[in-house]
Amino acid sequence: MLGICRGRWKFLAASLTVLFVPAITWIYLFAGSFEDGKPVSLSPLESQPHSPRYTASSQRERESLEVRMREVEEENRVLRKQLSLAQSRSPSHHHGNHSKTYSMEEGTGDSESLRAGIVAGNSSECGQQPAVEKCETIHVAIVCAGYNASRDVVTLVKSVLFHRRNPLHFHLIADAIAKQILATLFQTWMVPAVRIDFYDADELKSEVSWIPNKHYSGIYGLMKLVLTKTLPSNLERVIVLDTDITFATDIAELWAVFHKFKGQQVLGLVENQSDWYLGNLWKNHRPWPALGRGYNTGVILLLLDKLRKMKWEQMWRLTAERELMSMLSTSLADQDIFNAVIKQNPFLVYQLPCFWNVQLSDHTRSEQCYRDVSDLKVIHWNSPKKLRVKNKHVEFFRNLYLTFLEYDGNLLRRELFGCPSEADINSENLQKQLSELDEDDLCYEFRRERFTVHRTHLYFLHYEYEPASDNTDVTLVAQLSMDRLQMLEAICKHWEGPISLALYLSDAEAQQFLRYAQGSEVLMSRHNVGYHIVYKEGQFYPVNLLRNVAMKHISTPYMFLSDIDFLPMYGLYEYLRKSVIQLDLANTKKALIVPAFETLRYRLSFPKSKAELLSMLDMGTLFTFRYHVWTKGHAPTNFAKWRTATTPYRVEWEADFEPYVVVRKDCPEYDRRFVGFGWNKVAHIMELDAQEYEFTVLPNAYMIHMPHAPSFDITKFRSNKQYRICLKTLKEEFQQDMSRHYGFAALKYLTAENNS
User: Fold this and answer.
1) Region Disordered: start and end of each range (predicted)?
2) Which are the contacts of 90, defined by CB distance < 8 A and separation ≥ 6?
3) Cα–Cα distance between 358 and 227 in angstroms, integer?
4) Among 171, 331, 194, 350, residue whose Cα is nearest residue 268
């Protein structure tokens, strides 16, 4: 009822305004047309330039009155338009549900009046009118290629998600590497009201490969030029961002600026804050043509529909071809071409206030864009130096960037209340599985962990490896947490082949690992190590999920399933490749066992041969693995036979057997129900046996477990009775599942368990 009354009052007020404003205006003008009680003519025909009364002062007054008259007439026109809109609305419109909106403050640097905001916005609100509906989807396009850029995109996205209040649709122009990384990341991130679409950057290379480019971004730095052609034809507008951007405000504020474009304005850009396009940085410095200081393309607002109608593709191509005849190549990639087009067609650009792209490269005027922290909107690390750039306030900007870099991404899985979201099959299945669990079950947390989706960032560092052409290549597979990081260098020294590692880390720990790896000559010299970050969530260490992640992302036909605290013997990689051929692993279901030993010494003179290892066993420097606490785990390996064996020999499965094996990459995954400590490897070996794998011990292979402090999970197992009860329950359920899946042959596992 109140809304109806308010609407009627608005209608009445608008009506009175339209009626009375013209009358008041003409009274004002009529009164103002008298000077010393006598009328002053406003008509040029009646002016008398030679009269003494025709002075410069009266001329200015006359011009002022004419301007004011035009302004009032314009206000009148706007008000009439508002009134006609109000009259045309049906009564039912006022009774309906209105989507809540919020206004966007532009700060400074924008010449738009409040009137324009009223015309563009929703007239149901008071004061400045809103420009972005609550549930309006904001479209963002990003070009991303390679491993490093994929990491940068995550930080950018975090900063956007942190502030956002609207659904987001990211359009990622990505190469094969970035697509694999980011598709997995967003699929496992499961952020509500976020949609991701990928466009193959490699297919676009031919569109821009003819343009020589000196910029470090390479060919991908030119792909923003072809977005009108690449993005869906029904997409009308998009915000385009570089990967080195950090948002300090809600991106909807930037989206709202589209409503301020007028006429033929189709590009929203911030002026370049360096002197690059002024051409005075050094002797013979010759930049591409630009309008004044030029514009920076780290943040672009594109009106795609209008650009297509203007034949943007033809426009930029003709400009680039002409300029390249004299410039020969671009220095700043797409930015040079955008500026050359704008130089010829300045009406295309809407200049954004500079706080929408505070450019932190050396010797810029970025400090003029803000007076206070609240002024900051978008920070652009557009220097090759990135965080090492020179700026008076660089420490503040660096801390802001690091905040998002290390921010827990799981906290950004926020629902947008009141906004309908697209149905996500994965999310719906997860909710269904969780709803079927009994929350009063004392083992509920164990069962829940099996269905937890952990955010996963594949290939966190550069990876480059082509498997051997003879199809004998073997990848070492392992998992670790932050407390085992020191083992990486040693393993890389012992194993020269490819490695696939799953690391269970928080966002902050992932950055610590990055700094550690980048500071290590050993790790940086190896490009055949795939580091896959699985982000922490929940109270258990998801050991078998980590193993599965590492197994899934190998590129070789075979894998050595190891643990991070074992050092393989020197030369094991080549020995295993020969064994693969010798034992015909390609055509048989075999699991090759690498015998495991251990030392209690932190400093060990690693044995260089089997003979040297046997000597150390006899002296008590080495022991068979876990002989004093868990003999059953490796007893079937038959170490007594191994001492004298010169050829591979077969052993049978026994209860609780958990050797380290080499298998084909198509072997079954580890069972995710087992988390933390206990039965995680035992269950996998049992499944291999159920699938009729033959266990074969290698006579001249070995690995040694290095000492370390007990893990948190084994401490919980030893101290928590309920932990042990739940593990026993999970074991029984796993054995029952085996019997159902493999039938009569799997009954032996129940019998063996009862007899052990």
Assistant:
1) 42-66, 83-109
2) none
3) 24
4) 350
Determine the Cα–Cα distance for residues 269 and 140; give it in Å rounded to an integer.
15
Q: How many CA atoms lie within 13 A of 576 on its CB side?
A: 34
Alpha carbon distance 393, 617 (integer Å)? 61
Question: Torsion over CA of 674, 676, 680 and 681, rounded to 10 degrees?
Answer: 170
- Write a three-state SS string for 647-713: CCEEECCCCCCCCEEEEECCCCCCCCCCCCCCCHHHHHHHHHHHCCCEEEECCCCCEEECCCCCCHH
Q: How many CA atoms lie within 13 A of 175 on its CB side?
A: 15
β pairing state of 101-102 and 132-133: antiparallel
| Rg, C-alpha atoms of the chain | 35
Q: How far is CA 57 from the centre of its chain?
A: 64
Q: 560: which 2 tokens?
A: 């050595």
- Between CA 539 and CA 546, with CA 542 as vertex, the angle to 5 degrees is 145
* pLDDT value at residue 73: 57
Residue with tokens 């209040």: 165
Q: What are phi and psi of 471, to 5 degrees?
A: 60, 35
What element of type H or E holds 223? none
Whether 569 shows a pLDDT value over 90: the answer reads yes
Residue 705 · residue 598 · CB < 8 Å: yes
In angstroms, rounded to a whole number, what is the distance separating the alpha carbons of residues 723 and 714? Answer: 10
> Of the ranges 454-463, 669-678, 692-701, which one carries the lowest mean pLDDT score?
669-678
Compute the average pLDDT of residues 175-181.
Answer: 97
Nearest one of 125, 124, 131, 123 to 106, comparing CA atoms? 131
pLDDT of res. 43: 37
Per-residue pLDDT, 321: 93
Q: How far is CA 43 from the centre of its chain?
A: 65
The residue type found at 697 is V
Could you count the other beta carbons within 10 Å of the beta carbon of residue 427?
14
CA distance linking residue 648 with residue 94, whole number of Å: 84
Distance CA 174, CA 147 (A): 11
| pLDDT band at residue 719 under the 50/70/90 scheme | confident
Which tokens sit at 484? Answer: 């085992």
HSE, side-chain direction, 13 A CA sphere, residue 487? 23
What are 158's two structure tokens? 């975090």
* Superfamily (CATH) of domain 457-752: Spore Coat Polysaccharide Biosynthesis Protein SpsA; Chain A (3.90.550.10)
Segment 157-168, tens digit of pLDDT: 999 999 999 999
- Answer yes or no: are the C-beta atoms of 739 and 746 closer than 8 Å: yes
Q: Are 358 and 378 in contact (CB under 8 A)?
A: yes
Contact status, residue 269 vs residue 290, Cβ threshold 8 Å: no
Q: Which has the closest alpha carbon to 336: 323, 352, 326?
A: 323
Least-confidence region, from 19-23, 114-118, 444-448: 114-118
210: enclosing H helix or E strand: none
Assess whether pLDDT exceeds 90 at residue 558.
yes
Cβ neighbourhood burial of 34 (10 Å; 0-12, 13-18, 19+) = exposed
What does the block give as tokens for 706?
């290095």
Bridge pairing between strands 358-359 and 378-380: parallel
Fold category of 201-407 in CATH: Spore Coat Polysaccharide Biosynthesis Protein SpsA; Chain A (3.90.550)
Nearest by Cα to 599 from 448, 444, 503, 705: 705
What ranges do the domains of the chain cover?
201-407, 457-752
Q: What is the pLDDT of residues 307-347, one digit of tens each?
A: 999 999 999 999 999 999 988 989 899 999 999 999 999 99
